[in-house]
Task: inverse folding
């Protein structure tokens, strides 16, 4: 038969396990997230390191955003397709321009500044030349 002091010691041990194990798990998760973010930040070049390249607009379209519920408002995204060369390779990208609109005519109005065939400047990721942006943040 267990004595009161043995039961008390076992209770204390189990109580500590229910505190110590979750605390160690949270600390381990925090260290993992920190190290993973640090690794990702080291790999990705800063946007300021992107280089400017000349591209040509090949298409301009308005896309309707997918709705998760029927009662959600419809939003229209103006987007352009453009292509550019880097060395001997030709890259094609699509990017939304402006902001989404709830009226399709406003989305088309945004696209009026992006005529097909127009020459524009885009910013290319030096480590992944197929990745380009219209602007940098």
Result:
């Amino acid at each position: 038969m267990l004595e009161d002091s043995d039961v008390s010691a076992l209770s204390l041990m189990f109580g500590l396990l229910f505190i110590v194990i979750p605390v160690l798990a949270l600390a381990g998760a925090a260290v993992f997230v920190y190290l993973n973010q640090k690794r990702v930040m080291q790999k990705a070049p800063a946007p300021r390191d992107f280089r400017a390249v000349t591209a040509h607009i090949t298409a301009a379209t308005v896309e309707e955003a997918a709705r998760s519920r029927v009662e959600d408002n419809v939003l229209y995204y103006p987007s352009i397709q453009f292509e550019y060369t880097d060395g001997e390779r030709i890259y094609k990208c699509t990017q939304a321009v402006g902001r989404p609109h709830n009226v399709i005519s406003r989305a088309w109005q945004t696209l009026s500044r992006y005529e097909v065939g127009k020459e524009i400047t885009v910013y290319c990721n030096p480590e992944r030349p197929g990745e380009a942006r219209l602007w940098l943040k």
